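TA notes, week 10

Several of you asked for a full example with nothing omitted. So below is the full record: C-alpha coordinates for the whole chain, then the designed sequence directly under it. When grading your own attempts, check the secondary structure regions first.
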Protein backbone atom coordinates (compact mmCIF):
# COMPACT_ATOMS: atom_id res chain seq x y z
CA UNK A 1 0.00 0.00 0.00
CA UNK A 2 1.13 3.55 -0.65
CA UNK A 3 1.17 6.16 2.04
CA UNK A 4 -1.63 8.71 2.13
CA UNK A 5 -0.67 11.72 0.04
CA UNK A 6 -1.18 15.32 0.99
CA UNK A 7 -4.30 16.68 -0.68
CA UNK A 8 -5.77 20.11 -1.35
CA UNK A 9 -8.75 21.47 -3.27
CA UNK A 10 -8.89 24.08 -6.03
CA UNK A 11 -12.15 25.81 -6.96
CA UNK A 12 -14.00 23.16 -4.94
CA UNK A 13 -13.55 20.85 -7.93
CA UNK A 14 -9.96 19.71 -8.39
CA UNK A 15 -8.44 17.45 -5.77
CA UNK A 16 -4.69 18.01 -5.82
CA UNK A 17 -2.38 15.23 -4.60
CA UNK A 18 1.39 15.65 -4.38
CA UNK A 19 2.96 12.30 -5.29
CA UNK A 20 6.58 11.12 -5.18
CA UNK A 21 9.06 11.93 -7.96
CA UNK A 22 7.76 15.44 -8.66
CA UNK A 23 4.38 14.24 -9.91
CA UNK A 24 1.14 16.00 -9.01
CA UNK A 25 -2.23 14.35 -9.61
CA UNK A 26 -5.05 16.69 -10.59
CA UNK A 27 -8.24 14.75 -9.91
CA UNK A 28 -11.93 15.39 -10.49
CA UNK A 29 -13.49 12.97 -7.98
CA UNK A 30 -16.80 14.84 -7.79
CA UNK A 31 -17.81 13.34 -11.14
CA UNK A 32 -18.37 9.60 -11.53
CA UNK A 33 -15.65 9.44 -14.19
CA UNK A 34 -13.10 10.18 -11.44
CA UNK A 35 -10.60 11.28 -14.06
CA UNK A 36 -6.99 12.18 -13.26
CA UNK A 37 -4.57 14.43 -15.11
CA UNK A 38 -0.92 14.67 -14.10
CA UNK A 39 1.67 17.43 -13.87
CA UNK A 40 5.20 16.02 -14.26
CA UNK A 41 7.98 18.45 -13.35
CA UNK A 42 11.35 18.53 -15.06
CA UNK A 43 14.39 20.74 -14.66
CA UNK A 44 13.61 22.92 -17.68
CA UNK A 45 10.00 22.12 -18.60
CA UNK A 46 6.84 20.69 -17.09
CA UNK A 47 4.43 18.25 -18.73
CA UNK A 48 0.65 18.16 -18.32
CA UNK A 49 -0.86 14.78 -19.17
CA UNK A 50 -4.44 15.44 -20.40
CA UNK A 51 -6.61 18.48 -19.69
CA UNK A 52 -9.58 17.01 -17.81
CA UNK A 53 -13.29 17.45 -18.24
CA UNK A 54 -13.48 21.21 -18.67
CA UNK A 55 -16.02 21.75 -15.87
CA UNK A 56 -13.54 24.16 -14.26
CA UNK A 57 -10.56 25.37 -16.33
CA UNK A 58 -7.57 23.22 -15.39
CA UNK A 59 -5.44 26.34 -15.63
CA UNK A 60 -6.92 27.33 -12.24
CA UNK A 61 -5.20 24.32 -10.72
CA UNK A 62 -1.97 24.87 -12.63
CA UNK A 63 -1.72 28.43 -11.29
CA UNK A 64 -1.37 26.95 -7.82
CA UNK A 65 1.10 24.25 -8.78
CA UNK A 66 3.90 25.53 -10.99
CA UNK A 67 6.40 28.23 -11.77
CA UNK A 68 4.91 29.94 -14.79
CA UNK A 69 8.35 30.93 -16.12
CA UNK A 70 9.00 27.32 -17.11
CA UNK A 71 7.63 26.06 -20.41
CA UNK A 72 4.60 23.81 -20.12
CA UNK A 73 4.14 20.98 -22.61
CA UNK A 74 0.56 19.67 -22.84
CA UNK A 75 -0.42 16.28 -24.27
CA UNK A 76 -3.62 14.33 -24.86
CA UNK A 77 -3.45 10.56 -24.39
CA UNK A 78 -6.59 10.09 -26.52
CA UNK A 79 -9.60 12.04 -27.76
CA UNK A 80 -12.35 11.16 -25.26
CA UNK A 81 -14.21 14.05 -23.64
CA UNK A 82 -13.03 13.45 -20.07
CA UNK A 83 -9.39 13.89 -21.11
CA UNK A 84 -9.61 16.87 -23.49
CA UNK A 85 -12.16 19.21 -21.89
CA UNK A 86 -9.56 21.87 -21.09
CA UNK A 87 -7.77 21.89 -24.45
CA UNK A 88 -9.08 25.35 -25.30
CA UNK A 89 -7.06 26.84 -22.44
CA UNK A 90 -3.73 26.17 -24.15
CA UNK A 91 -1.94 27.41 -27.26
CA UNK A 92 -0.70 24.00 -28.36
CA UNK A 93 -1.50 20.37 -27.52
CA UNK A 94 0.69 17.45 -28.58
CA UNK A 95 -1.58 14.57 -29.59
CA UNK A 96 -1.28 11.04 -31.02
CA UNK A 97 -0.18 10.83 -34.64
CA UNK A 98 -3.34 9.04 -35.67
CA UNK A 99 -6.07 10.31 -37.99
CA UNK A 100 -8.94 8.88 -35.93
CA UNK A 101 -7.66 10.67 -32.83
CA UNK A 102 -7.09 13.89 -34.75
CA UNK A 103 -10.57 13.75 -36.31
CA UNK A 104 -12.19 13.23 -32.91
CA UNK A 105 -10.25 16.10 -31.40
CA UNK A 106 -11.14 18.48 -34.22
CA UNK A 107 -14.82 17.45 -34.02
CA UNK A 108 -15.15 18.13 -30.28
CA UNK A 109 -18.11 17.12 -28.13
CA UNK A 110 -21.50 18.76 -28.48
CA UNK A 111 -23.97 18.99 -25.62
CA UNK A 112 -25.98 16.18 -27.22
CA UNK A 113 -22.86 14.03 -27.57
CA UNK A 114 -22.12 14.46 -23.88
CA UNK A 115 -25.71 13.61 -22.98
CA UNK A 116 -25.46 10.34 -24.93
CA UNK A 117 -22.40 9.40 -22.90
CA UNK A 118 -24.10 10.22 -19.60
CA UNK A 119 -21.83 13.16 -18.82
CA UNK A 120 -24.52 15.20 -17.09
CA UNK A 121 -25.74 12.26 -15.03
CA UNK A 122 -22.33 11.84 -13.41
CA UNK A 123 -22.41 14.70 -10.93
CA UNK A 124 -23.06 12.74 -7.77
CA UNK A 125 -21.22 11.04 -4.94
CA UNK A 126 -22.65 8.98 -2.11
CA UNK A 127 -26.16 9.93 -3.21
CA UNK A 128 -25.52 13.70 -3.14
CA UNK A 129 -25.31 16.09 -6.07
CA UNK A 130 -21.80 17.38 -6.77
CA UNK A 131 -22.70 19.78 -9.56
CA UNK A 132 -21.14 23.20 -8.99
CA UNK A 133 -23.71 26.02 -8.57
CA UNK A 134 -22.40 28.00 -11.55
CA UNK A 135 -22.07 25.05 -13.95
CA UNK A 136 -24.34 25.58 -16.98
CA UNK A 137 -25.27 22.05 -18.04
CA UNK A 138 -27.78 23.29 -20.63
CA UNK A 139 -25.15 25.04 -22.73
CA UNK A 140 -21.96 23.16 -21.84
CA UNK A 141 -19.97 21.58 -24.68
CA UNK A 142 -16.34 20.88 -25.52
CA UNK A 143 -15.28 22.72 -28.65
CA UNK A 144 -13.12 21.10 -31.28
CA UNK A 145 -9.38 21.44 -30.79
CA UNK A 146 -7.65 23.29 -33.62
CA UNK A 147 -4.53 23.88 -31.53
CA UNK A 148 -3.19 20.35 -31.89
CA UNK A 149 0.11 18.99 -33.17
CA UNK A 150 -0.12 15.26 -34.05
CA UNK A 151 3.43 14.12 -33.30
CA UNK A 152 3.08 11.50 -30.54
CA UNK A 153 4.07 8.10 -31.86
CA UNK A 154 5.98 5.09 -30.60
CA UNK A 155 9.37 6.10 -29.20
CA UNK A 156 8.77 9.87 -29.29
CA UNK A 157 10.69 11.48 -26.41
CA UNK A 158 9.44 14.47 -24.45
CA UNK A 159 12.56 16.02 -22.90
CA UNK A 160 11.81 17.97 -19.71
CA UNK A 161 15.42 18.48 -18.73
CA UNK A 162 17.11 15.64 -16.83
CA UNK A 163 13.83 13.78 -17.25
CA UNK A 164 12.73 12.11 -20.49
CA UNK A 165 9.21 10.80 -21.02
CA UNK A 166 8.77 8.15 -23.70
CA UNK A 167 5.59 7.72 -25.74
CA UNK A 168 4.26 4.18 -26.14
CA UNK A 169 1.46 3.58 -28.64
CA UNK A 170 -1.24 1.57 -26.85
CA UNK A 171 -4.35 1.48 -29.07
CA UNK A 172 -7.45 -0.50 -28.19
CA UNK A 173 -9.58 1.74 -26.04
CA UNK A 174 -9.30 4.22 -28.92
CA UNK A 175 -7.50 3.78 -32.26
CA UNK A 176 -4.44 5.86 -31.38
CA UNK A 177 -4.31 5.96 -27.59
CA UNK A 178 -0.91 6.31 -25.93
CA UNK A 179 0.75 5.62 -22.59
CA UNK A 180 3.78 7.49 -21.24
CA UNK A 181 6.83 6.04 -19.48
CA UNK A 182 9.26 7.90 -17.25
CA UNK A 183 12.20 5.50 -17.42
CA UNK A 184 14.29 7.35 -14.82
CA UNK A 185 11.69 6.84 -12.10
CA UNK A 186 9.93 3.75 -13.46
CA UNK A 187 6.58 5.53 -13.73
CA UNK A 188 3.98 4.39 -16.26
CA UNK A 189 1.11 6.76 -17.06
CA UNK A 190 -1.54 4.43 -18.48
CA UNK A 191 -4.50 6.77 -19.06
CA UNK A 192 -7.43 4.44 -19.95
CA UNK A 193 -5.33 1.40 -20.82
CA UNK A 194 -4.96 -0.11 -17.34
CA UNK A 195 -6.33 0.51 -13.85
CA UNK A 196 -8.34 -1.28 -11.20
CA UNK A 197 -11.94 -1.28 -12.36
CA UNK A 198 -13.77 -1.74 -15.67
CA UNK A 199 -11.68 -1.61 -18.85
CA UNK A 200 -13.89 -0.48 -21.74
CA UNK A 201 -13.37 -2.08 -25.16
CA UNK A 202 -16.86 -2.11 -26.65
CA UNK A 203 -17.46 1.31 -28.20
CA UNK A 204 -17.32 1.67 -31.98
CA UNK A 205 -13.87 3.23 -31.72
CA UNK A 206 -12.55 0.39 -29.53
CA UNK A 207 -10.78 -2.77 -30.67
CA UNK A 208 -10.34 -5.63 -28.16
CA UNK A 209 -7.69 -7.29 -30.36
CA UNK A 210 -5.54 -4.17 -30.38
CA UNK A 211 -6.22 -3.65 -26.66
CA UNK A 212 -4.84 -7.12 -25.91
CA UNK A 213 -1.79 -6.50 -28.09
CA UNK A 214 -1.13 -3.22 -26.29
CA UNK A 215 -1.24 -4.88 -22.87
CA UNK A 216 1.14 -7.60 -24.06
CA UNK A 217 3.41 -4.94 -25.53
CA UNK A 218 3.64 -3.19 -22.16
CA UNK A 219 4.46 -6.48 -20.46
CA UNK A 220 7.13 -7.38 -23.00
CA UNK A 221 8.86 -4.02 -23.40
CA UNK A 222 8.74 -2.75 -19.80
CA UNK A 223 9.25 -6.00 -17.94
CA UNK A 224 11.01 -5.30 -14.64
CA UNK A 225 11.12 -1.54 -15.22
CA UNK A 226 7.74 -0.40 -13.86
CA UNK A 227 7.74 0.76 -10.24
CA UNK A 228 4.38 2.55 -10.16
CA UNK A 229 1.47 3.31 -12.47
CA UNK A 230 -0.53 6.50 -12.63
CA UNK A 231 -3.83 5.71 -14.41
CA UNK A 232 -6.45 8.01 -15.87
CA UNK A 233 -9.31 6.98 -13.58
CA UNK A 234 -10.42 5.90 -10.12
CA UNK A 235 -7.14 6.45 -8.22
CA UNK A 236 -3.89 8.27 -8.86
CA UNK A 237 -1.09 5.99 -7.71
CA UNK A 238 -0.39 2.29 -7.49
CA UNK A 239 2.86 0.64 -6.46
CA UNK A 240 2.92 -1.57 -9.51
CA UNK A 241 1.36 -5.01 -9.23
CA UNK A 242 2.41 -7.21 -12.18
CA UNK A 243 -0.69 -9.34 -11.64
CA UNK A 244 -2.90 -6.37 -12.53
CA UNK A 245 -1.46 -6.40 -16.03
CA UNK A 246 -1.44 -10.19 -16.31
CA UNK A 247 -5.05 -10.40 -15.08
CA UNK A 248 -6.17 -7.88 -17.70
CA UNK A 249 -4.41 -9.92 -20.38
CA UNK A 250 -6.11 -13.11 -19.17
CA UNK A 251 -9.55 -11.50 -19.32
CA UNK A 252 -9.02 -10.21 -22.85
CA UNK A 253 -7.75 -13.63 -23.89
CA UNK A 254 -10.94 -15.18 -22.48
CA UNK A 255 -13.01 -12.79 -24.57
CA UNK A 256 -10.92 -13.52 -27.65
CA UNK A 257 -11.45 -17.26 -27.12
CA UNK A 258 -15.19 -16.56 -26.85
CA UNK A 259 -15.27 -18.03 -23.35
CA UNK A 260 -18.69 -17.74 -21.71
CA UNK A 261 -18.73 -14.30 -20.02
CA UNK A 262 -19.43 -13.84 -16.34
CA UNK A 263 -22.55 -11.80 -17.10
CA UNK A 264 -24.09 -9.04 -19.16
CA UNK A 265 -23.24 -5.48 -18.29
CA UNK A 266 -25.84 -3.77 -16.10
CA UNK A 267 -24.89 -0.36 -17.52
CA UNK A 268 -24.57 -0.95 -21.27
CA UNK A 269 -26.87 -2.91 -23.56
CA UNK A 270 -25.25 -5.46 -25.86
CA UNK A 271 -22.13 -5.57 -23.68
CA UNK A 272 -20.73 -8.53 -21.76
CA UNK A 273 -18.09 -8.56 -19.08
CA UNK A 274 -15.35 -10.79 -17.78
CA UNK A 275 -14.31 -10.37 -14.16
CA UNK A 276 -11.38 -11.30 -11.97
CA UNK A 277 -11.76 -10.57 -8.24
CA UNK A 278 -8.44 -10.21 -6.41
CA UNK A 279 -7.14 -8.62 -3.23
CA UNK A 280 -5.63 -5.28 -4.16
CA UNK A 281 -2.13 -4.67 -2.88
CA UNK A 282 -2.91 -0.98 -3.25
CA UNK A 283 -5.81 -0.97 -0.77
CA UNK A 284 -5.77 -4.38 0.88
CA UNK A 285 -9.42 -4.74 -0.16
CA UNK A 286 -11.13 -6.75 -2.87
CA UNK A 287 -10.69 -5.26 -6.31
CA UNK A 288 -12.79 -6.38 -9.23
CA UNK A 289 -10.98 -6.01 -12.51
CA UNK A 290 -13.43 -6.15 -15.41
CA UNK A 291 -13.12 -6.25 -19.17
CA UNK A 292 -16.18 -5.12 -21.14
CA UNK A 293 -16.59 -6.04 -24.81
CA UNK A 294 -19.46 -6.10 -27.27
CA UNK A 295 -21.44 -9.32 -27.26
CA UNK A 296 -20.93 -9.35 -31.05
CA UNK A 297 -17.18 -9.71 -30.47
CA UNK A 298 -17.59 -13.07 -28.76
CA UNK A 299 -20.21 -14.50 -31.13
Amino acid sequence: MTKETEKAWVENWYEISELPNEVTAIGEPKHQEEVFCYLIKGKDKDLLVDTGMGVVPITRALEKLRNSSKELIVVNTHWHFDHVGGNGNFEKILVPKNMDEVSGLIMGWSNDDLKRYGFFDGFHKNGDSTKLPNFDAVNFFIPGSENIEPVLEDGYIIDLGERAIKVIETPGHTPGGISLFDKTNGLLFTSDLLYEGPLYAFEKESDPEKYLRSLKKIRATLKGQIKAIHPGHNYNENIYEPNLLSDAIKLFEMARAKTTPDNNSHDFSGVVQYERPEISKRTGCLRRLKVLVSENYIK
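The chain has a mean pLDDT of 95. Use that as a sanity check on your answer.
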